[in-house]
Amino acid sequence: MIKSAILEEQTNQLQKEELAARILNQSRNELYLKLRYLDLALGNLDLAPGTASPAGTDGGTLYYFPDGLLSLYEQRGRAACTRLYLHGILHCLFCHPFDRKGREERLWNLACDVATETLIDSLYLKCVHISSGAFRKSVYARLKEKLPVLTAEGVYSWIMETLTEAEVSRWEMEFRLDNHCFWKQDPR
Question: Which whole-number Å values give the CA distances from 124 to 73, 87, 120, in the listed order?
């Protein structure tokens, strides 16, 4: 009886992993069609089940937590999963996981997410579209007043000088999509 329950649970977990992998593969295929210039990046990010919810990258692999990814898909749809995939790819292309250089980790992560989300929103792609609320639009307007190009480094400096703790928390709720637990901790 116990062996049967364990076997059933393992089978269920494997089915979730396979379904989550299929969702991410469909996301990658959709991005291939819409953003052909990213074909090398899209083809070089491996997928593997992990514990970071809903997903996170170390720069070589996108680790996905099946339950978290399936929940995201169920609650927010395919576009949210495709956006999550593109978000991870852009972190890798901009070397965000490797380039903290002694910056405060929480604020660096936030700055990377803001810069990445700004770029995704500027692409106007239906396959990754989420409705930008008034708060997100006001953040973009504030940043664009001070920064001609929204890089993670520029956003980080601006956040350090400008935001209160309450504002940082609010921005994290708005811009955090992925888990940065796999990012390398540089000694500098």
Answer: 20, 14, 7
Q: Are strands 61-64 and 55-57 parallel, antiparallel or unpaired?
A: antiparallel
119-175 pLDDT per residue, tens: 999 999 999 998 889 999 999 999 999 999 999 999 999 999 999 999 999 999 999
**At 55, which helix (H) or strand (E)?**
strand 55-57
Rounded to whole angstroms, what are the CA distances from 27 to 37, 53, 84, 89, 174?
16, 17, 9, 12, 22
Angle CA(157)–CA(163)–CA(164) in degrees, nearest 5? 140
Count of helix runs (H) and strand runs (E) in the chain: 8, 3
Q: Among 72, 70, 143, 80, which residue's Cα sits nearest to residue 110?
A: 143
